[in-house]
């Protein structure tokens, strides 16, 4: 394959990279006064990259003609579907930022540029078919994320979140690098397909250690238990738009990357890694549910909720089949708008001083003060809990269905039982909003006349996870099936 064809396959990444570089120059020359303009242009760049991925997803494109740069990059339907979710979540993070950062005078021109470069890194992650490409994408995403976590320099919590994320992220990168070096040493290659062939027989002890360390490094990125310790603190300390970004886009990228690594590089050793994935899934479901019960901060609660949801997603990965991968992609497609809607709803709430509301107790009586936001947040909570007729129920249903069809009935049963625990704290928030007396913390009229884009984003994301979302089940299932098939085509 010639160089020009490879460049055509990385068109979305080229659009974002060139846009990021150009906007970085604009930020250097124009300064922070151009932050809004740069954000709009960054949104346009993400929209263009989104449009470039749509034909690949709709057509289910896969095969050897989707491989670029001598097998280091695959622009197949699986990667493109993950990119659509990443770009949509990144765009939401750009829309959320001005309403929050301008109020505290921290909106700077670097924010949209960092989001763009992070999106480029995540794009490379989901298309990587080589350990070197994997690490380049992962580090590009992580370096931008470390800065975003500590973006509000005057806030001690934000600085602490950035430091914790950097230290623990560096540790995870070291673990991943060690696993990659072991895998290379025992397989003789860094390419996923060559690794799969070299490890096709009995797995040696050294190669098994390599597999374990690679999974441990990637488990940190998806905040799966027991590598979740950073998540509540970073989510609480980071600015709200950044937290919404962390809970959605990087999660999709890391899960897609983990899936590609296990199904392609270690696809012949399913029995070796399935038990690890099953443990990560069940531990994340239980710890995420139990850890959220005692939380009084909304952002920390949503952090444990994301850990809980990762557990359900990993059930689809544990199935290790096209059906399981498809179910996992369906769940992710529903999880992203659920997460965005939750953070947007909380971001729209202000007290009399115009400060954001974060304590759950402050949501008391919200239905009487901000009824529209309360009803949207109720739909989010019901959807996260998997209560029909909300669309979040469908995500859990397809994952459990894939597990049952793969004769993993015990795993599905334990997951269903553990999901009941999570329903407790979701319903607790609904009870506080609709049945408790107003706390007086949320003031009507404060924040209501802010950026209309927040209300539009909340309405759209809530509509997607409402019962109307079931109208898209047929299309979403077909798209996920084609994406899953494209992943396994050359595996």
From TrEMBL:
Q: Where are the transmembrane segments?
A: 6-31, 38-57, 77-97, 109-128, 165-187, 207-230, 275-294, 301-323, 329-349, 369-388, 408-427, 457-480
Protein's membrane topology: Multi-pass membrane protein
Q: Where in the cell is it found?
A: Cell membrane; Endomembrane system; Membrane
**Where in this chain does the record put each NADH:quinone oxidoreductase/Mrp antiporter transmembrane domain?**
128-422
The protein's enzyme class: translocase
Protein role? NDH-1 shuttles electrons from NADH, via FMN and iron-sulfur (Fe-S) centers, to quinones in the respiratory chain. The immediate electron acceptor for the enzyme in this species is believed to be ubiquinone. Couples the redox reaction to proton translocation (for every two electrons transferred, four hydrogen ions are translocated across the cytoplasmic membrane), and thus conserves the redox energy in a proton gradient.
Q: What is this protein called?
A: NADH-quinone oxidoreductase subunit N
Question: What does the organism's lineage look like at the top?
Answer: Bacteria, Pseudomonadati, Pseudomonadota, Alphaproteobacteria, Sphingomonadales
Gene name as annotated = nuoN
